[in-house]
Recover the amino acids of this structure.
């Protein structure tokens, strides 16, 4: 969602606004076939959601027909929530248990 408000105050052209958006990535799996013949499956992102919002303002000022000056400011706030950032489902090295291991739902 974005909101922008423009004003025409000759010789100034101020603009003010805000934007807000959210995105999600549900758990995804990556399959890697290694040169040694093993298959590794990982979930590098886990469940991630992010909300970002910002406020902004700017002004275009034309003191002369051949000259326009621009000044602006923006402030953003970002909030991110995530599961463990890296999970092995099937580790790439035999006999080694990684720090983060997750069971597949179809194979407990």
């Amino acid at each position: 969602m974005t909101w922008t408000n423009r004003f025409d105050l000759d010789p100034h052209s101020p603009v003010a606004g805000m934007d807000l958006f959210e995105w999600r990535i549900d758990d995804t799996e990556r399959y890697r076939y290694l040169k040694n013949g093993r298959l590794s499956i990982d979930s590098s992102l886990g469940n991630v959601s992010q909300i970002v919002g910002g406020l902004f303002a700017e002004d275009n000022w034309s003191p002369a027909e051949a000259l326009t000056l621009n000044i602006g400011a923006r402030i953003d706030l970002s909030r991110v929530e995530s599961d463990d950032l890296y999970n092995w489902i099937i580790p790439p090295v035999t006999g080694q248990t990684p720090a983060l291991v997750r069971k597949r739902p179809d194979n407990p």
